[in-house]
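This part of the workshop introduces the protein records we will be handling. An example says more than a description, so a record of this kind follows:
>
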Amino acid sequence: MTNWFHKFLNPHCPHCVEEREDSKVCSSCETLRQQLAFANINNEKLMNRLLDKPPVETPQEFREISKPRNLPWNLRKQMLEAEDRERAKLINNAPIPTEDLEKELKIATAQRENSLSSIV
């Protein structure tokens, strides 16, 4: 009760002002609040990173798959035959360069004529 009278009659005494400031903020409590806020921010960042969808990877250029080194002969034979059939299709379907053939024929006929005329 005397404390109440003291505060009522002397509200601005240095001792009372200091006591009020100490009762308002505890330094260890303030430190703990800061650390808790920091931990909450880190946890939120971590949760956001875990819950975000991963970035979509763009497909890269086609890479030729290397052939295994040890293949059974029957399988290797089938692969080689399939490659040869593809090559033959490409050769048969390729356009024939007629101009080159005509030039070669003219050269061949000219050589034949020259050889025949030199014999006679």
About this structure: The radius of gyration is 48 Å. Residues 85 and 91 are 10 Å apart (CA to CA).
